[in-house]
Amino acid sequence: MTERRTLTVNGIELAYQAAGPGGGEPLLLLAALGESSEDWAPVRDELARERRVYALDLRGHGGSARTAEYSLELMRDDVLGFLDALGLDRADLIGHSMGGVVAHLVAQRQPHRIGRLVLEDAPAPLPREAVPPVRPPGDLDFDWAMVLAVRPQLDRPDPSWLAGLARITSPTLALWGGPTSHIPWSAVAELTDRIPDARTLTVPAGHLIHTTAPADFLAAVEPFLTA
Predict the structure, then answer these.
(1) How many CA atoms lie within 13 A of 44 on its CB side?
(2) Closest CA to 33 of 174, 119, 148, 184
(3) pLDDT of the residue at 1
(4) What is the mean pLDDT of the chain?
(5) pLDDT single digits (tens) 121-176
(6) What would the mean pLDDT of 29-38 be, rounded to a whole number?
(7) How far apart are CA 196 and CA 139, in angstroms?
(8) From residue 101, how far is each of 20, 58, 161 by CA, in Å?
């Protein structure tokens, strides 16, 4: 059964889902820009058969607080504070797209906290052409101010983030969604080149691998997590 809970971390309320046996090895899931913990529903229960799975709403997303300030560094610090609040010294970590960027920033900052790391269709922190974001119509499940704050960081990343990939000690799996993904192969391959113990695997399902092809995602990720 999936439990929906909240925790106060770094002075703000963060919402999350928890599933799986209480004594299971911890696994933390971070969703993409604009997505909430519910985005992991297609794979959450399977991942939680023997693990304790936590799917976190990053600040400005889902049920988590809307704040006056947003940055990828603040999200990184929220994740580390979340682990502290749960009393977790170490956890495996899966991040999708922007959540993957946050994930590798976490693994750079405190390498000893992350066991195995999965970066799903997440780019290396390289400059890219900036495209002005267009607000979707209607009510949003995320704070549009958050998008306006973090998109420039994704377009023009801090150069130290690229160099910092070398500090990651976790065995790392970089998944690429294939030619129909908007993330270029070169931006994913760069992760493998920069992270000392990393490998790349293509799952040709587009950017949303875990929702478009959940069985293929699990077939790639579960053996890696248990190796």
Answers:
(1) 23
(2) 148
(3) 84
(4) 97
(5) 999 999 999 999 999 999 999 999 999 999 999 999 999 999 999 999 999 999 99
(6) 98
(7) 42
(8) 26, 12, 9
